[in-house]
């Protein structure tokens, strides 16, 4: 059975989620209070509805509790975002993801039961900053305040050494979870795998250990 999604708020963020879900063949209901925005998604979404989601009766009439995953992508109107999220959880929606505009908004969304809170501007800013600080870091995903997964490029210095030779886990406290080599990806590489210069190492660990690894080993 295909999952059914509903996206509330069709700005740049909600709109792009809606487009991507539809592209992946998912059932998506697109909802916005603004009719013009709704019309833009009429051809993309399975249903496009003009509605104010802060009205509980409206949410009930949309049968919102039957959706597997509802995304609240209302940003500027923080009150509407909070009210909508609260009612979705009260109505028993299994999974609610919500976009936070700032740290306070994020805190409230978590408190009222949002299952997943995203903070796209902040998170993208952090990722870009990481990429700018080190030429070797291609991408980075924050797992917690202190742990991340990073994609780093293996230097000439690392090339020709096996994972066990480099003793990365003991020396730097991080693990190589995969190696991207051209179009191939080696998941959970063996300890005797030889690293080649230019390989993209996907490493997991504490931020401080990943930073030290970037500075010292690469
Ligand atoms: P983005 O930053 O994603 O581009 P935006 O700045 O265009 O978003 P936001 O204020 O973040 O707009 O809101 C996103 C959408 O949410 C808007 O299209 C807005 O009409 C819609 N929206 C706001 N309040 C409600 C509501 N109560 N019910 C339904 N949709 C709403």
Automatic annotation (TrEMBL):
Domain of life: Bacteria
Molecular-function GO term, any one: monoatomic cation transmembrane transporter activity
Residue ranges of domain RCK N-terminal in the record: 2-118
Ranges where the RCK C-terminal domain occurs: 135-218
SUPFAM superfamilies in alphabetical order: NAD(P)-binding Rossmann-fold domains, TrkA C-terminal domain-like
Any GO BP annotation: potassium ion transport
Pfam families per UniProt: TrkA_C (PF02080), TrkA_N (PF02254)
Protein name per its UniProtKB record: Trk system potassium uptake protein TrkA
Organism for this UniProt entry: Mesobacillus foraminis
């Amino acid at each position: 059975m295909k999952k059914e999604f509903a996206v509330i708020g069709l700005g740049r963020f909600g709109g792009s989620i809606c487009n991507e879900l539809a592209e992946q063949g998912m059932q998506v209901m697109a909802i916005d209070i603004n009719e013009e925005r709704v019309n833009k998604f009429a051809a993309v979404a399975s249903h496009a509805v003009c509605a104010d989601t802060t009205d509980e009766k409206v949410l009930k009439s949309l049968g919102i509790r039957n959706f597997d995953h509802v995304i609240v992508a209302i940003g500027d109107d923080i009150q509407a975002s909070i009210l909508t999220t609260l009612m979705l959880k009260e109505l028993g929606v299994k999974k609610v993801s919500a976009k936070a505009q700032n740290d306070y908004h994020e805190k409230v969304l978590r408190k009222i039961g949002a299952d997943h809170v995203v903070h796209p501007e902040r998170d993208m800013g952090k990722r870009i900053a990481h990429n700018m600080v080190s030429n070797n870091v291609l991408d980075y995903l924050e797992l917690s305040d202190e742990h991340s997964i990073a994609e780093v490029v293996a230097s000439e210095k690392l090339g020709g050494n096996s994972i066990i030779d480099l003793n990365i886990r003991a020396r730097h406290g991080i693990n190589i979870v995969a190696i991207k080599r051209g179009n191939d990806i080696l998941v959970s590489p063996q300890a005797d795998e030889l690293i080649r210069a230019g390989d993209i190492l996907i490493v997991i660990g504490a931020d401080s250990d990943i930073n030290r690894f970037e500075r010292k080993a690469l």
